[in-house]
């Protein structure tokens, strides 16, 4: 039964800081220098007075804009709250400067015509500049939010594609494994071997125990160890005098997330291409360990007939490499080598953090 792909959840809006950033403060200082120079010819104030006043007003506008953006309330849209805060700051902050000049005497301020004109001029300029600043800042925030949404959607689609590819590769391997195992049972039945019934019984128990794990999305190396051990026990019953094996996975690595049947692919290859063709059979050793702080190594070593120099890479091995790359990333490796005493050693190397269980 097919299922619809999960919908992309919009990214949560990041919590905004009430205090402005350093670049914004620097922009206010530079803006105050320019505005004070522009207003100097049309006022009676000294340049330092104009600079101080415009700097104070600019800082008030900036802090009002930042505080309104960080204010968590539902009755007014955030953008509207920021525009209202900027407008209020543009009106109030120049008045504060004038009242400080007149030591709080509002009547004296109102009686000074050129101070009132200066206040109105500063308030109008502050309102215009503050509104423009708010519009530009909000447009930049909207562009960053859209870029974040696009990046999230792309990451989600890439993850869905990787999951679909991994599921497809796993589905291709399962029939290969099951058909090979059933073919082994068929050979025993046709040859009239007394091992046919116990092997068939063990195979049924094996499938009953392991089939639920084949589709398990969060399989671990512990699950893979049980699968490999059960498979080797079935193979050992089929040829008890020709196959010996050991499986040794350290306890600290068993929680590692691992694609289902990946290690089993190498074990099956060792039986089919190493032990079966050998006249005297052989031994298979399965193990795992850390090579360094960043890499985990798993291996399957057999004492069978060894590598054929002209044999092409099988579909199972190609599938395994593709699955490991999808699951662990491009750092995953599968390496085959001849053993000095005969046989083949297959090593899987994967990065530590990529498959760690949550």
UniProtKB/TrEMBL annotation:
<keyword id="KW-1133">Transmembrane helix</keyword>
<feature type="domain" description="Signal transduction histidine kinase internal region">
    <location>
        <begin position="164"/>
        <end position="243"/>
    </location>
</feature>
<dbReference type="InterPro" id="IPR050640">
    <property type="entry name" value="Bact_2-comp_sensor_kinase"/>
</dbReference>
<keyword id="KW-0472">Membrane</keyword>
<dbReference type="Pfam" id="PF06580">
    <property type="entry name" value="His_kinase"/>
</dbReference>
<feature type="transmembrane region" description="Helical">
    <location>
        <begin position="25"/>
        <end position="44"/>
    </location>
</feature>
<keyword id="KW-0812">Transmembrane</keyword>
<dbReference type="GO" id="GO:0016020">
    <property type="term" value="C:membrane"/>
</dbReference>
<dbReference type="InterPro" id="IPR010559">
    <property type="entry name" value="Sig_transdc_His_kin_internal"/>
</dbReference>
<feature type="transmembrane region" description="Helical">
    <location>
        <begin position="116"/>
        <end position="138"/>
    </location>
</feature>
<keyword id="KW-0418">Kinase</keyword>
<dbReference type="InterPro" id="IPR036890">
    <property type="entry name" value="HATPase_C_sf"/>
</dbReference>
<dbReference type="GO" id="GO:0000155">
    <property type="term" value="F:phosphorelay sensor kinase activity"/>
</dbReference>
<feature type="transmembrane region" description="Helical">
    <location>
        <begin position="83"/>
        <end position="104"/>
    </location>
</feature>
<feature type="transmembrane region" description="Helical">
    <location>
        <begin position="50"/>
        <end position="71"/>
    </location>
</feature>
<keyword id="KW-0808">Transferase</keyword>
<protein>
    <submittedName>
        <fullName>Sensor histidine kinase</fullName>
    </submittedName>
</protein>
